Amino acid sequence: MKPKLHFLGAAGTVTGSRYLLEYDGFRLLIDCGLFQGVKRLRERNWQAFPVEPKTINAVALTHAHIDHSGYLPRLIKQGYAGPVYATAGTRDLCGVLLPDSGHLQEEEAKLANRRGYSKHTPALPLYTEEEGRRALHSFRDVAFHERTEVGPMRLTWRRAGHIIGASSIEVEVGGRRICFSGDVGRPDDPVMKAPETLPDTDYLIAESTYGDRRHPGIAVEEQLGEVVRRTAERGGVLLIPAFAVGRAQTLLYLLSSLRRRDAIPRMPIFLNSPMANSATEIFWNHADEHRLSEAECEAVNEDVTFVQTVEQSKRLNMRRGPMIIVSASGMLTGGRILHHLQAFGDHHRNTILLCGYQAEGTRGRTLMDGADHLKFFGSYHRIRAEVDVLDGLSAHADYREIGDWLARSDLHPKVYVTHGEPAAADAFRRYLHDRFGWTATVAELGEVIDL
User: Fold this and answer.
1) How far is CA 372 from the centre of its chain?
2) Structural contact between residues 99 and 133, judged by C-beta atoms closer than 8 angstroms
3) I need a labelling partner for 199 at 20 to 30 A (CA). Which of 14, 297, 325, 372 fits?
4) The architecture CATH gives domain 220-392
5) Angle at 447 between CA 446 and CA 451, to 5 degrees
6) pLDDT tens for each residue of 354-404
7) Which residues pair with 450 in a beta bridge?
8) pLDDT in tens, 133-161
């Protein structure tokens, strides 16, 4: 009997990470993410899951980002009753992310119903904040490097950098070894430690988010400082949409470092995202996974004002610059950043600084591509603020960095390329063949392979 692998997500797109590994009647789901981006992708979240959730025996998560964990409450709502295996860092972050995801969906449904811009009557959330919180009861902690018996399979988690708790997962089953890369971090990330090497494996499921691009060889801290100084000279507001987990903490550290060196003016720095506030505390508590000292963490806490309540958030919109607001979400898909965009986006003194990857169909991508109007809250809003992009702050390794990581791992696998837009995935497939001589295939959604 051979193991079977089903590609249920992250094929042809960078979101919706879901892989079903099947052996001898046992079903393991690796990652359980939401589809994000363009409408045709988001609509997949409302479709029936490709296999009956009650027939899945266990779930294992590579990390906590919503495109890898955010479908869990929905899966449980549809009947899944098994355990969810994850590292302690992933469990802690999901404790913030999943209830917040449900809350945002509830708020968006309420707003759509109030303003009448949904095609559905009434508009409903995919799941609620309470359902997101209940999903946490299914979590079971695993330790890095220790084999965990899950039915007939043996799983090992190895640090992948990227964010706290992020892992590559090795599965041994049916005489085969399969490695799921997860999202791979960068070797020289200013905050996170480098990803650990992998053991030799028969099959590698490899991400390709930056499969056709290199990160620019620039000093990110200096580029950030230049944007801050330019905005401050105009007396403007610097809006930085940032992923609450990972990107926000890196930005706060860089801003604090610049401020401590007097490389930027001593303007107020606000972190306006309850989820990012909680994620920052979790980040400090997992010191073994990042590079920052206790003193550097304390400096960030001293230099940044952490905004908590809705009333405090609203008051920010009444302030004048210069000031810096870091707020979620990183691709402008929702959250408090949209209210700040409404308040500050239509003035030339202000700056919107996009950081890292902007997926197809998101407002961040639309803005990056030069749009001067954005639709949110049911109507179009003019954007006259300067738009800049901080390219070097991505938490994903580029194709060369992943290639160097794989070279250090000394692998000889058959590769299935996932988690990339079509052009990036195909470019990465060619790169792996040309550099290593490996057989590499771009996975297709719904594809099932015998291992």
Assistant:
1) 26
2) yes
3) 14
4) 3-Layer(aba) Sandwich (3.40)
5) 140
6) 987 787 788 989 999 999 999 988 899 999 999 999 877 888 999 999 999
7) 4
8) 999 999 999 999 999 999 999 999 999 99
